[in-house]
Batch of 2 targets.
Target 1
Amino acid sequence: MSIESVFEKEKISLWLNDDIPHDFPILSQEESCGVCVIGAGITGITTAYLLSNMGIDVMLIDSHTPIRLTSGNTTAKFTFQHGLIYSKILKKYGTESARLYYEAEIQAMKIVEKLVKDLEIPCDFKNTYAMIYAENEEDFKEIREEYEAYQKLEIPGELVRELPLGLAGVGGLRVENQFDLHPVKYLSFLLEKLKERKVRIYQQTKAVDITESGESTLIITEGGHTIQCQKAVIATGYPFFDGNGFYFARLAAYRAYLMAIPRPSDGNTDAMLISNSSSPHTMRFIRTNGIDYLIIGGSGHKVGQESSAMDSYLKIIDFARENFHVDDVAFRWSAQDYESLDGIPYIGALTSKHPNILVATGFRKWGMTNGTLSAYLLTQNIAGKITRFDELFKPSRGEVKESLGQVMKENLNVAKELFKGKFTPTHTSLEELGNDEGGIIRHHGKRTGAYRDKKGKLFLFDSTCTHLGCELEYNNAEKSFDCPCHGSRFDHEGQVIEGPALKELKVTEE
Ligand SMILES: Cc1cc2nc3c(=O)[nH]c(=O)nc-3n(C[C@H](O)[C@H](O)[C@H](O)COP(=O)(O)OP(=O)(O)OC[C@H]3O[C@@H](n4cnc5c(N)ncnc54)[C@H](O)[C@@H]3O)c2cc1C
Ligand code: FES
């Protein structure tokens, strides 16, 4: 396959190519409910589903359409093996916390398995093993350390020196009884159940603010409507409302790239693999709609801090060619997720001053289990129950003091991007822009975002991010304008795609 043909393909995930058979109204009136869940990805949909099971009057809103953001663009591995998390938690917080993290992930996996089984959800569910593997001896040392943490925590796992499928590397840590599935089929099914139960769901309904008045929580939408509820759940990936929780200083946004490549049915599909390199590769297999695919991904980087997103895809193709001798890309897509300072998600009250505003974020690309876990913990919280996991995941756990080094690193990085963006020279001039091309140009002496569509229509914007004022960079593979500070992204018409920004970009005159 030629490299060009990869980019000729429309950017869509294998999952979203199976259309979502749902359409929901836009909120056009004032509403009230017991709990309003904001954001319809795995976190929001599962939360709404569990709340409706409990007989709670729940409503679900989404700024775009459900499942189309990270949850529709994930790899969808369900495993407790989240990179090298156990040795890290062990070092930072000790045995009890590390063991609790493991038990929380097991709990989340059980919830999904039970839902799939009880509701007979047709979602290509498959039992499989997971493995983190090392490409060289240096990386293997860290895997051995993780294995030692497993032994201390009594987590079942096996250190192996042979890698499956002829993968280049020196060994790995393998865990049994994990699973994967088709996330859009799984979540669409839960949405259908919510519809059957007459749960109110609104799409194209963006929440832009939250205020509190006595016992009431008021969610304000972009359309100017108010949703009055007792509790609000922010399940928007990056929290759109900060409430003085300083999430912008405690979360980092990372983007990564995925591809689905058709492959022969040779039965070698019961593996979920991830490497432990500085730029990890992730792999899983799926047979869906009668075709076998290898899903392969990697080239992760901080949002807006990669010189060429196209190169990110090309590096993955090289890896697929070398290791699997395949390169016939059927689907390519990318997505982003957010990392907390200590690698543990923030799940619970937004801050100690906002007990009625709950949040779930910071899943570190492990939100299939962590999003489900959030649904479990937040619904328990809403039911007035305390769980043994609450303290570990509590957003106001005071992790800053244990993670001071990380705080400095993240905030220096933001400061550097803020400074750099204002002064770095632009690369593209307006005259150089062909059709369907974009870039950051200097226009009337000002740094400007520019894109010319396929028919030659020109779009020009102020390239300053509407969140906290960093300068955007052009993403040549997604044709978007991405913010290197906290991960907001804008489409070629200047509309917000994702991240903490709420306002579109300011249009510049030609
Ligand atoms: C490349 C990649 C691969 C991954 N692979 C795996 C994996 O194999 N296993 C795993 O466990 N995890 C994986 N993850 C992580 C996982 O996919 C995510 O953590 C998870 O999907 C996040 O789900 P969510 O519901 O919290 O957010 P999302 O799915 O992003 O949903 C948030 C929703 O909120 C809506 N929204 C945003 N702002 C507003 C607003 N202001 N008002 C109303 N609605 C709003 C959005 O439109 C969106 O629909 C991966 C992540 C990436 C990036
Ligand atoms: S996302 Fe925060 S400044 Fe752009």
Note: Residues 95-118 form the longest helix (24 residues).
Target 2
Amino acid sequence: MYPESESHSPLLYKSYKQLILLGICLILMLSTGKATAAASGSTIDSVKPTTKPLKVLTSIKPLQLMVASLTAGTRTDIQVLLPPTASPHHYAMKPSDRVAVSDADLILWVGPGLEGFLSKVLGSKPDSNVMALLPKSIEADHDHDHDHDHDHDHDHDHDHDHDHDQALDPHVWLDPNQVRAALIRINDLLSELNPGEAALYKANLNRTLKALDTRLVTLKERLITAQKSARSKGFIVFHPAYDRWIRYFNLNQLGVVSIHPGQAPGAKHLAQLHQWIHSGKVTCVMIEPQYDAKRVQSMIREKAVPVVSVDPLGQSITVDGDGFLNFYETLAKGFEGCLTP
Ligand SMILES: [Zn+2]
């Protein structure tokens, strides 16, 4: 018996050991299960960061189109703040806009020189979640002028002269070189905020830059041809939005209808406009869907100068991977049509 029991006791000891181990395993499995359930119940974000789409908010449509060219195939939600008929030069934020700003993971705007209405509210967002295409502006250096913009016309004039200074011209999305640089910066930010899809962003960036370069060569050829056929004639635009575009494509802009968008042109400026139209040098006048140009239209109709609507904000363009290229294509067509009516 003894030897037998002795021979049994190590077996019994082994099975006890197995039981204890099994018990420990069970306890461990149950406890980790509980921990996982607790974690997923309370902070789902920290457990699965990639299940939620990255929320990007842009101030204006062209910036939304730029982001969309980098996010095809990724789970990125791109919203735009301004409604289609609004101009960023004089927009007042709604309470829902503030909610959209606080909900966004990344906010893209031009800067205080264009969307001044965003300056304050963006101050509460971490720097890593905000990107300005043109961080500096004359308003940022002269806050006192900015405060009085709406009360005193002369202050407004002062600001605007500087606004359309070459380097500070806030219409950066109409400058192909600035767009190229911005796309690279946007890609970096998207990849930082959503590293899981960085390879897709990068592939989209490479495809977009290549397509943009190819398209720009074609657009340049076409616009040079259009300007050549217009000879020394040129066009008038509604407000000074296209200075960067015009420099890039070497186009002949003779003047603007409204130096300060949103304000009716003054008597002196209207007289100047009349003189331009009488000169026979104007191929066409461009108006914009964001501004009511009735007065200009009635003035121009008598003189039989064509009026075309060209949208510097691309509001009718579909938001997809090719949206920005389509926006530039539509703009170029508008200028071609205006130079060779
Ligand atoms: Zn503008």
Note: Residues 2-42 form the longest helix (41 residues).
